[in-house]
Design a protein that fits this description.
There is one protein chain. The chain has about 270 residues and is α+β, with helices and mostly antiparallel strands. The protein folds into 2 domains: about 10-70, no CATH class; about 115-265, Alpha-Beta Plaits. It contains 10 helices and 7 strands. The strands form 2 sheets. Strands 2-3-1-6-7 form a 5-stranded mixed sheet, with helices on both faces. A hairpin with a 2-residue loop joins strand 2 and strand 3 (about 185-190). The protein starts with 7 loop residues before the first helix and ends with a strand.
Amino acid sequence: MADGPITPEQIVTKPLVFKVAPVEGVDIKKLREDVLGNKPNEKPSLTPAESPPDVNQIRKDVLGGEEKGTSNGGWEEGQLNAVPANEELAKRNKVIEEQQKQIGIDPLTGAKNRAEFISTLSTMEEENRMVFLAMCDIDNFKEKNDKYGHLAGDEVLKILTQRLKSHISQNKGDDIFRFGGEEFAIVIQSYGQPEQDVAQRVEELRKDIAKDNFMIDVNGEKMNIPVTISIGLANKRSGETGGQLTARADRALYDAKESGRNKVVLAKTY
């Protein structure tokens, strides 16, 4: 840039390199610091990584008026809003991650859901693992819903889930699933256990459910609800698919309900 007087436009468009002619009574170094915010031996730093200058305000201060231009002095909207946008994206990603964690979980009872049950049986089939499957159903559940209300019915399902969980060894791979409505499925790892031993464990579970009524509190109203379950138990056969195993256990559950309820029936080879 040639020597000589500086126009206001040059201050705005090229603020980093200019010369100022000495003026009597004016401290040039102090003036440079006040205008540019830099010490005499420092290079001015006006990068997008820092807070961008308000060019419109500079023009207004220097020129004594306003000029048309972008509302943020030539900075792209994305640059100014980069941090808020990233924070919003991070929040959304966190919500998605939490939702993904909930996939496979029944929201009412906290047991794994039917989709997870099918996935577990598929894995069992691929690995040719031997397991026991107990299909459980609450006896006369519809009548309880009609008598005590659906909120009470929901509480029964929650309490039953916790009681079932207390009887299985999750650390050994056993697990509980809400199959649908008031029906639950329990996958019990075999580990070479005799069928009668597993049947005895399941029978103890049934007795524990029937032993004490469920104490329910719905909106301050306390209810004492008797609950029993019927169970069909099947031992996976060699080469049997998950669907075939489920069908046999479910047939045994049907037999348990048809023969009086509140009992365990071992599946046959249908």
